Amino acid sequence: MVTSVFLKACPNCGGPLEDYRALAGLPCSKCLPGDISPFKNLSIDEKIRLIYNILVHENKLKGYWNLYYYHQLSQEIIDYFKKITGKEPWSLQKLWLRRLVEGSSFSMSAPTGMGKTTTIIVYSTYLQNSNKNVLYIVPTKSLMQQICEKMEKIGDKTSCGKVGSGISIVTVNYINRNFEEIKEYRPDFVAVDDADAIVKSGKTVDRLVTLMGIPQEVYEDAIKLVKLKRLLAIEEKRDEIETKIAEIESRISKYYGTASQLVVASATLRPKGIKQKALKYITGFDVSTAQIYARNIIDAFTSSSVVDIVNKLGSGGLILVSKEYGKDKIKEVNESLKELGFKTAIALSGRKFLEKFSSGEIDIIIGSASYYGVAVRGIDEPKRLKYVIFYGVPKSRVRLSQAIYNPYTLLKISKLFNVNIDDNLILSLSPSEAQLIKLAFLKSQKLTGKLGEIQKILEGKIDEVKSALKAVSNEVISDTFLIRKIGKEFYIEYPDAITYLQGSGRSSRLLNGGLTLGLAITIIDDFKLYEMLKRKLQYMIYNFNPTNFDSLDIGKVKNEIERSRNDKNEELHISTGLMIVESPTKARTIAKMFGAPARRNIAGVPIYETVIVDGNNVHILDIVATKGHVADLTTENIGYYGVEIRNEDKYPYYSPLYRCMNCKRVFSQEIDKCPYCGSTLISSSMSTINAIRKIAMEVEKVYIATDPDVEGEKIAFDVAANISAYNPNIYRVKYHEVTKKGILEALANPMNIDLNLVKSQIVRRIEDRWVGFELSKLLQIKFSNRNFGAGRVQTPVLGWITKRTEEYRKNMCYVASIKLGNYTHKVFLDNKNVKIDKVIVKKMEDKDDIILPLPPYTTDSLLIDAYNLYKLPAERVMKIAQELFESGLITYHRTDSIHVSNKGIEIAKEYLDKKGLIKSFIPRSWGNEGTHEAIRPTRPIDAEELKKEIEDNPQAYFIKFTWAHFAIYDMIFKRFLASQMKEAIGKYTKYQIKVLDNVSEITVLTSIKGGFSDVLKPRIYEIPEGEIQVNPIITKGSKVRLYTYAEVIKEMKDKNIGRPSTYAKIIQTLMRHGYIVESKKKYALIATKKGINVYNYLNSKFSSLVSESTTAELLEKMDMIAGGKLNADNVLTEILGQIKSLVTSLNSEQQI
Q1: Core-most of 133, 150, 904, 924, by most CB within 10 Å?
Q2: DSSP codes of every residue in 818-882
C-alpha cells in the first residue's frame, strides 16, 4: 500500500497528515487516533463539532480551535440573519456573512436584487449588539432615508444623517462637509453603498483613510507603492525597484487587520488616481465590484429619428447621445421629446433623475454615451427601464496629434500609410512600457536603455506618418477605426463596444429570479463605424446578430418586455465557489472573460472574483492560482530519500515548497537559508494553501481546475488533501481550452479526482527520486564532484547523443556545401584542397502526385517543427505554448492525440468561409476521441488578426507577446487549418547531380497548387539545370550528422522514452548538468567529455537500470497504473529491489 503523508497539513497540530485522513477532513493519527469510519457520514458541521469535543476531552486541542470557532461564528451570524429577516439567507448572502463576521474587507460582487443592502443592515445591527460603531455611507439623501427606516425597524441606536454612537448612516457629501468635526470618530465597520464617489475623489479617500484609523505613514507608503509599481517597466532599475517594493509591502503588511473593516456594496468605476489605488494595498482589495456582461437583449439598428422611435416604444427609455454631439444635442433631444408630451430628465450628474424615473415621474432619461457617465453606469432600474436608444454609433474620438504617441496606435496608423514599422517591436511591449513611452513623448523626455532605443525609432516613424497625413483631405478608413479631418485637426474615431455593452445592459437586469428582456436600438450616423462596432461585438458576445428596427413587430416586442418584468421568471440557481488553477495568467484570463472581475489579496495571494451567468445558473466564483505544485517529495532525512518503508507499505512524505526570493530556486525542505545562494528571503507554498483554506470555508463548492494531465491531477490531489478539513465539497473540473465554452462545460460536468492518475505520478516521482539520488550519489563519489547528477529517463537520451558524437568524430572529413538555386547540395571530401568549380545538374523526370495534409500538431511534432523552422529550443516552445493555452488562444498543448472535435472543425469552416476558401473545406476528425485533442486554435483568427486584436486592445491578454509567440501561433493555426482542407497537387522532380566523380540523385518538390497549399505551402525547390559554375563553401565536418533538438525529440517519441510533458525537460536537464551542449552555428547537440564519461560509467555499471528498453517498459507500466491496470505498490517494490540489488552489488565489488 502507498500512503502519502503531507507535512504541515494537520489542521490541529500542523504536523504530518496521512492522505486518507486528509481527504476525510480529519486531523492526523496522533491527534485523533483510532478508526475513522464513524466520521464518514457526518455533515461538515457535525464532524467539526465532534472532532472539537474529542480533542478537548483528550486535552489535544491546538489549531483546530480556529476552524471550530469560524464555523461557530458563521452559524451564529446565519442564525441571527434568520431571526432578523425571518428568511434563510441565499448562498451568496451566506458567503458575505461569513466574510463579514470574520472581519474581512471586500467588495460585494453581485447584481441588484441579490440582497447586499439587507446583508449589511443585518451585520450592522449584529455589531451594534456588541457595542461596536458602524459607519454606513450612501450616495444620496433619499437612499439614506430608506436605509434609516429599514435599520430602525431592527436597531435602536441609529444616527440618520449624522455621526453618532452605534450605527451612523450618512452621505458622502456629509463626510466632506463635516470632516473637521468627525475626524476623531473611529468606526469598527465602514460600509460604502456606492463607491464611485470615493473612487472619483482623492480628497474623499484621504478622509476615509483617516476615519478608518489608517496611520498616515502607512497611507503614504501605499501611495509610494503605486508610484513604484508604475516604474517596473524600466528594466535597468527593475531590481532596485523590486527591492523597494518588497520593503514597503512588508511594512504595510504589519498593519493588516488594525484599521476599520471596509465593505463596498457596489461600485462601477475602477480606481484611477494614485490615492484611490493606494487604498487597495492597505485594505487588501480593489474598491470596485465585478461587472457582468450577461444580457437578454434584442439588438437593433435604424436610420429613423429618435422621436419616431420613442413614439412607438413609449415610457421607460434611456437615450444615450454619442459624445461628439455634446450637451447641445442632449438638450435638443430633450426639448423635442417634451414637445410631444413626454416627461424627460437629463442625466449628466447626481442621482435625482433616477429617483424620479423609478417613481414614474419621468418617462425618458437622456444622457451621454460615455463609459464613465452616470447614464451608462449608474442606472439600475429593472422594472422601469425597458429600452435604450443610442443616438449615433457609440464612439470615441481622440486627436491624432496626441494619440500617435501611443506605440500601439502608431503601429495601427503606420500600416494605413505604408510606413514600415516592426510589428514585434511594438507588440512585445507591455502596456506599462507603452505608457512610459507615450508619457515621455508628451513631456518631451528622453528614455534610456531598451525603451530609449524604441522611443528613438518611433520618433522617426511619427515624422513619417505626419508627412503622409499632408496628402489626406477627408478620411482614411481601416478595419477597426478611421482617421477623419475635422477643421484643421485630424482625429481617430473608433467604435466604443464597452459603452454599448454597459449602456444596452441597463435594459436587461436581474429581476424575479431571471434576466429581464431589453431592447437596444442604434440610430446609425456612420455606417462604416457601425460595421466596425458590429464586428467587434460579434467577437465579444456569443450570437450577436442585430436586426433592422423597422422590421420588428413592435407590439409583440413590447408585450414580451412587459411580461419579463411582471411574470415570475424561471428561478435562478445561485452558487458560490472557489476555482483553483495553476497559473496567475490563467486565473486572470478566466476571471476577465465573464466581465470585469473584482480583486482582493489574502496574505500576498491574489484572488479574482467574477460572476458567471450561464442560463439560469449564476456562479459567484473566486479564482486563485497555486503557481504550480504546492508540495513535493521532501528532501528531509526521512526514510529512503523521503519515502518510509514499513514492511511492504510505502509512505512518501510531501513537503510544502519553498522558493528563494533571490535566486528563484525551489526546494522541498524547510530551512532558514537558501542552499543555493544563502539568502534568507524565502517564501512558502503554505501561504497559498492557507489562502485557499480561508476561501474554501466561505464558499459552497471548490472546483480544482488544474491542467488535464497527470501533473495536474497530482496538484489537484495535493490541494484536496490540504483543504478537505475546511470544505469537503471538492470537485475536479477539466477543460482543454481556456474559453467561455470550455469553462462552462467544465463547471457543468464536475467529477472526482482520478486516483489512478495520481498513483501513476507518485510512482514516477518516487522512481525519479530513488534512481536519481542514488545514481547521483554514486557519480559524485566516482568523479569527486557534487555537481554530477543522473536520472533513469535522461540516461538513454544522453547515450544517443554520446554515441552520435563519437560516430561524428570517427567520420570526420571535409564537407563542400554547393548552392544550387535554393537547394544546398553537400559532398564529402577527404582533401580540403580539392577544386570544385562546376556542377552538372540533369532533370531525370517530373511526376505529379496527390499530397495529403498532415494532421494537426501533437506536442512532439510542434517541438520538432518549431526547432526546424525557427531554431527555438523545446523548453522555450513549451513555455510559449503554455502561455498561449492559458490566454485562451490554443487548446491544451501537452498531448499525443491528433483528434479534432466538432468545435474545432467548425472553427476551420468559419475561417475558410471568411477567407473565400470554403470550397477547399474537408472536415476531418483525425481518429477517435480520446482524453485529449490535437493542438489547435480556439477561435477562427489567424496570426495577423491576432496582432490586430492586440493593437486594438493591448490589455486583452496577460502575457507579453514576442515574435516567437506569433510564430508558434501561426504554425499551429496553419497546420490545423490545412488538416481540414482538400489535398493539394504537387510536382516532384528527380535530378541527377554530378560533382567531380560523385554522382547522386535527389527527388524534391518543385511545385504545388490547390487544396491546403493555399494556407500552408511546403518548401518548393528551384534547381537550375545544365553545367553550373559554383563556388562551394568547404568546412570541416563529418559524414555522420550530429543530433538536433528536433531529431532527439522524434527519437524519444519513436522509442517511447519520455512523455509530451517531459520532452523539453529531459534535454534541458542534460544541458544544465553540462553533459551536452548546443553548437552555436549548426544548433547541433554534442556530448561533452563530462557527459561521455558519465554515460560510459552508468552504462557499464547500471545498464539494466537505465537502458532504453527498461526505461520504455517502466513508462508503459506507469501508463498501466494510470489506467487502473497495474498495482502501484508492486511496481515500487520492483523498482526498489532493482536499485538495492545493483547498489549492493557495486559496493561488494568495491568499484566506487
Answers
A1: 904
A2: EEETTEEEEEEES-TT----EEEEEEEEEEEEEEPPPPPB-HHHHHHHHHHHH---HHHHHHHHH
DSSP code, position 751: B
Residue range 594-645, pLDDT digits in tens: 878 889 999 889 999 998 877 778 889 999 999 999 999 999 999 999 999 9
Convert the pLDDT of each residue in 851-869 to its tens digit.
Answer: 999 999 999 999 999 999 9
Question: Does pTM top 0.85 for this prediction?
Answer: yes
Quick check: is 739 in a domain? yes
Burial class (CB in 10 A: 0-12, 13-18, 19+), 930: exposed
Residues 285 and 335 in one domain: no
How many CA within 13 A on the CB side of residue 339?
A: 8
> 93 labelled as ligand-binding?
yes
At 290 the pLDDT is: 60
- Containing structural domain, residue 439: 407-476
Q: How far apart are alpha carbons 1094 and 776 in whole angstroms?
A: 10
Q: What is the pLDDT of residues 950-962, one digit of tens each?
A: 888 888 888 889 9
Complete DSSP assignment for 1040-1081: SPPEEHHHHHHHHHHTT-S-TTTHHHHHHHHHHTTSEEE-TT
Average pLDDT, rounded, for the chain = 90
Comparing CA positions, the residue from 704, 604, 767 lying closest to residue 1113 is 767
Whether 857 is catalytic is: no
Q: CB atoms < 10 A from the CB of 70, how many?
A: 18
Here the cell at position 111 is: 447584481
What is the rounded CA–CA span in Å between residue 671 and residue 659? Answer: 11
Do 721 and 583 share a structural domain? yes
- Do 297 and 277 reside in the same domain of the chain? no
Pair 847, 875 in one domain: no
Question: What is the rounded distance in angstroms from the CA atom of residue 1141 to the CA atom of residue 1147?
Answer: 10
Q: Tell me the three cell numbers of residue 1072.
A: 544544465
State the virtual CA torsion across 212, 271, 327, 140 in degrees, nearest 10: -30
Written in H, E and C, the secondary structure of 451-476 is HHHHHHHHHHHHHHHHHHHCCCCCEE
Contact 299, 520 (CB under 8 A): yes
When divided into structural domains, the chain yields a total of 8
pLDDT above 80: residue 21:
yes
Q: Which three cell numbers stand for residue 183?
A: 475626524
With respect to residue 437, please indicate whether it lies within any of the assigned structural domains.
yes
Nearest residue to 30 via CA among 44, 12, 48: 12
Considering the candidates 371, 658, 808, 892, report the single residue annotated as catalytic: 892
